[in-house]
Amino acid sequence: MADVDKLVIAGEIGRQTALEYIEYTFEPGVMYALSGRNGAGKSTLLLTLAGELEPVSGEVTFGGTPPGDVTNAGNIVRVSDPIFLPDLSLGEHIELMQRKTKLDLSDALTTWQLGELLPLPPAQLSSGQRQRAFLAIQLYLPAQVLLMDEPERYLDTHWQQCLTTELRNLASAGRIVVVATHSADMLAACDHRIVVGHHG
């Protein structure tokens, strides 16, 4: 892969003060795990990689430009907590996303077994069902970089295994997949593991 396909960080991450200096190159076709204790900086690193938080020093680039640059619009997706509009059913959320992105999410609905849930508003779904729905909507956006913060939350063992399989498939298709996780199974499924906060 050409260098322009890579996500590169060389700098200190943090909010007001630096937590850690990180120098790393994330390459297409690879699934990366971010591990570390709570508060170590995993979420801060994801925000920095997404361009939502500036590094304290140094830089982050994707395609040679900052991730928040207009040229990278849509190239990087950070998936965190499920967010739904309370007045819309799950099916209406899916329809809105399909119209906005021109994606056909029918395969995703089958994979995550959401068909029977489509008429329901998000408030009537369990936390696990909402997480499955959110993943079905977010995972398949045409982004080149997928950043995820503990996506296995609220999922039982079966759906955690499904998530791992889907992320492996996305990486195999050429995406850069970066997952902050505490799951031993998710860590084992990743190609590389980055321990955040091990200097602190």
Automatic annotation (TrEMBL):
Keywords for the protein's UniProt record, in alphabetical order: ATP-binding, Nucleotide-binding, Transport
Q: Which residues form the ABC transporter domain?
A: 2-200
Gene3D superfamilies in alphabetical order: P-loop containing nucleotide triphosphate hydrolases (3.40.50.300)
Q: Which domain of life is it from?
A: Bacteria
**Single GO term (MF):** ATP binding
- PANTHER family for this protein: ABC TRANSPORTER ATP-BINDING PROTEIN, TAURINE IMPORT ATP-BINDING PROTEIN-RELATED
Q: What is this protein called?
A: ABC transporter, ATP-binding protein
